[in-house]
Write a structure and sequence with these properties.
single chain, mainly alpha, three-stranded antiparallel beta sheet, 14 helices
Length: 520
């Protein structure tokens, strides 16, 4: 029964529809075994048959093969107790053994497609016979020879080098097929070209000097040399040694000066303190001790939050007031602590003037200056002045406390207000008289003053009788025991806990009570 095939698009531009009008399909193969043979066995005397190709132009490869009978060996029955399949009446099988089966073999060839100008092309195909013989297996027919025959050899289709390419290459394409040796002219085996491996060039001394000179002139971007940290460490050690030498020299000359006659007379006239003009009760009341702790607590956290605001690039959260003004949550913490610190300071001012303790930190005589100089020289000589803080501060302490309470604290407050959102925006004349740049230029140095004051204050407290001094301010008694030291440790622990807790996860719920907290 003849079967027609529907014709499709042409295989080449401008050509006829494919397949040709006279193309006839093959007859179906009746047995799976026959289909297996058809994949490898050639057909004796069969004319070339045109089949669809992968390229744009059909290519027929004529193959000459040895003769083989057309009958198929019968196999197992298709039903239980039946005759072997296929039956003899079908005309496809015979009782006699067969030697071979007529088949047709084709070699798929990929032909070059049309190449546009400026684009790489497709290499032509060359048939090459491999010099490697194929391993022979079982016979394909009953009583036949092992397959494939001894004179068969695999064929390799190799892409020829494109003359338009600068580097010739050979790459295997297509599939291997078994073809008789007399069907294809033997040729040399296709060379296997490995992809080029980029090797690291070894520069000669001349080339190295050339690159170095180019880097110096700016023609080539120079590679930065690795930095070595040890010179900085060495410079730091040298600076410490120089500072120690200066301090030792200063102490030596001060002690020498105070041991002379004029020096001893100066110390006798100005011992470092004077009797205040206003009588002050001895000791430190409870409100003074609490004020001291709160002032220390707020000051440490204010310094910490202020430095965080100064160096913070991207705030972790924002706080917005009810009027819509938005600031970072770190700045909100800084300003909130400022307010609490100012409230504590106002209470302190009221109490010292109400109780008369103001005379402890406010100079009442001009003798405060020579006595302050005497106390400073005694500190430098490492021979501490007489401490009697339970009754009266020495003149250097009094001046330091006066500057801190009545000058540095108000200056920190007015510069902070000018930089905050509390400052009225519509006060043009006031803003012109007190520019924002002036407040910024003063606020940070004032903070540095507080840092230096705290360092020297704590150092002198521990250096001039730690247990007694701590008892004065923390335990409220003029004795030497560990009570004040224990209370001091508790206060330091509270400051450390607050320092650790001052982070957005803790601050956000508190800040949300007074405004809106958001990530942006």
């Amino acid at each position: 029964m003849a079967t027609t095939v529907r014709r499709g698009l042409p295989r080449a531009r401008g050509g006829a529809a494919w397949p040709p009008a006279d193309f006839a399909p093959e007859a179906p193969i009746a047995s799976p075994e026959l289909a297996n043979v058809a994949e490898d066995a050639p057909l004796a005397g069969a004319p070339p048959v045109a089949r669809p190709r992968e390229a744009s132009t059909p290519v027929d490869v004529p193959v000459t093969t040895t003769a083989a009978p057309a009958a198929v060996r019968r196999g197992l029955p298709r039903v239980a107790g039946g005759d072997p399949w296929p039956p003899i009446s079908s005309g496809l099988a015979t009782a006699a053994p067969v030697d071979a089966v007529p088949v047709r073999v084709e070699t798929p060839v990929t032909e070059p497609a049309p190449v546009l100008p400026g684009t790489p092309g497709v290499a032509p195909v060359r048939v090459v016979t491999s010099s490697t013989s194929a391993r022979r297996g079982l016979p394909r027919t009953a009583g036949g020879e092992p397959w494939p025959p001894a004179d068969y050899a695999p064929v390799l289709l190799v892409a020829e080098a494109d003359p338009r390419e600068s580097t010739p290459t050979a790459a295997p394409v297509g599939d291997h097929h078994s073809v008789p040796m007399d069907a294809v002219a033997p040729g040399p085996a296709a060379p296997v070209v490995q992809p080029p491996v980029k090797a690291r060039p070894v520069l000669s001394p001349v080339a190295q000097r050339t690159l170095a000179n180019a880097a110096k002139t700016g023609e080539v971007e120079p590679v930065p040399a690795p930095t070595v940290a040890w010179p900085r460490v060495l410079l730091g050690l040298l600076a410490l040694l120089a500072l120690g030498a200066v301090a030792f020299t200063l102490v030596f000359f001060v002690r020498f000066a105070l041991s002379t006659g004029p020096g001893m007379d100066f110390l006798a006239r100005y011992p470092g303190e004077y009797h205040p003009a206003v009588e002050v009760a001895e000791g430190f009341p409870a409100w003074a001790r609490w004020q001291h702790f709160l002032n220390f607590f707020f000051m440490i956290l204010i310094i910490r939050s202020g430095l965080q605001v100064r160096h913070e690039k991207k705030p972790p959260a924002y706080w917005a007031s009810k009027n819509g003004k938005k600031i970072s949550i770190s700045l909100w913490l800084h300003q909130s602590l400022d307010i609490l610190w100012l409230v504590n300071g106002v209470v302190f001012m009221v109490l010292i003037f109400a109780t008369g303790h103001w005379a402890r930190i406010v100079p009442t005589s001009w003798e405060v200056f020579p006595n302050a100089l005497s106390a400073g020289l005694q500190y430098l000589s490492m021979d501490w002045p007489t401490e009697n803080g339970w009754v009266n501060f020495n003149s250097l302490q009094q001046l330091a406390y006066f500057v801190t309470v009545f000058l540095a604290a108000p200056l920190a407050a007015i510069t902070g207000v000018r930089m905050s959102g509390i400052w009225p925006k519509n006060a043009t004349a006031l803003s012109k008289a007190y520019p924002l740049e002036v407040a910024r230029a003063l606020h940070f140095p004032v903070m540095l003053y507080f840092v230096i004051f705290v360092i020297f204050h704590v150092a002198l407290v521990f250096a001039t009788g730690a247990l007694r001094n701590l008892n004065h301010m923390y335990a409220g008694q003029d004795v030497v025991n560990w009570a004040g030291f224990g209370i001091m440790l508790l206060s330091v622990g509270a400051v450390v806990a607050a320092w650790i807790a001052a982070r957005p996860v803790v601050l956000a719920p508190i800040a949300s009570l007074f405004g809106k907290v958001s990530e942006r």
